[in-house]
Amino acid sequence: MDKGPTLATTNHHFTVSLTVQLHLITEQILNIRFNRFYRMLGTGKIIIGIFLVSLCGSLHAQISSPGLGDANTAFWSAFGVRRQLDSLGKKQALSYIALGRKSSTDDYNLVSKQAIIVLNHEVYHSFAPNQQYSYAVSYRRQPKYESSAPYEKESTEQEFRIYGRYAYTFKLGTRWKLKSTVRQEFRKFFDAGFRQAEENFQLRTRIKSQLTYNLSPKNNQKLALSAEGLFSTSYLNEPEQKWTPFGYREMRIGAYYMFSIPHSSFSVDIGYVNDLIRGSRSVRKGGVHYLAVDVIWNLPVQ
After folding, report:
1. Is 61 helix (H, G, I), strand (E, B) or coil?
2. 236 vs 41, more confident
3. Of residues 64, 65, 61, the one with CA closest to residue 74
4. Are strands 242-243 and 196-216 parallel, antiparallel or unpaired?
5. Which among 14, 94, 125, 148 is most buried, taking Cβ atoms within 10 Å?
6. What is the CA 259 to chain-centroid distance, rounded?
7. 18, 129 in Cβ contact below 8 A?
8. 38: helix, strand or coil
9. Over the chain, what is the mean pLDDT?
10. Tens of pLDDT, residues 108-160
């Protein structure tokens, strides 16, 4: 008896079921964390809605690696699920979980210490030719280490982030694209027990340009070069309650190779990132050097 169609149907149902479960788990975790955050933040600081403006102009864009603090080398890996929300291909959602590890400031073992864990959910809308916006909610948990040897773990910082992004893409011939992005973030910090952290909250602006070259339509192969400047101001709890001056904080330079795995719904981004942190020990050595690997499961509209 031919069981091929039955097996294909079973696999299809399993794939759909797994996708739905992943989205539900991600949304439940974010809802629990964000509701707790909302209650603790207080109505006097609910200025979040101002910043929901938006994102990139390319459907195949790598997940940007975050700052992992002072180090020599670092490793970032992410697994995401991208789902089309409409039949026109103008709306989509991306949920991902990611881990980061890093070296100490006196060695080059890029996986020696835990650096960060990230849960992120973002919705995109291509609302006009070459233009796109997005809005997102994110939870991050990041260990803090002593600044001198033996660099032991000192504390844990939790962050809730909401951000919006807007981008315009310039088409330069048939193979080149230049994407310019503005991203506005609101970041709220807590310690491991959801008590006040030294830094209360931060307003951060990110300006990025990315040049993409389409290598080949086979497996959707692309190369991308990017540069991003980060500017911020913070409201501190300690040593005294005050605002810090708005100014330049970091520069992140990246190079990525992007491709789709043949005969599958998965795409892979492999890249290098150089994070130049103003005033850090690492910037005097040329910055923090990242290896980044992202795997994204691309799902059609259902």
Report:
1. coil
2. 236
3. 65
4. unpaired
5. 94
6. 19
7. no
8. helix
9. 84
10. 999 999 999 999 999 999 999 999 999 999 999 999 998 787 788 989 999 99
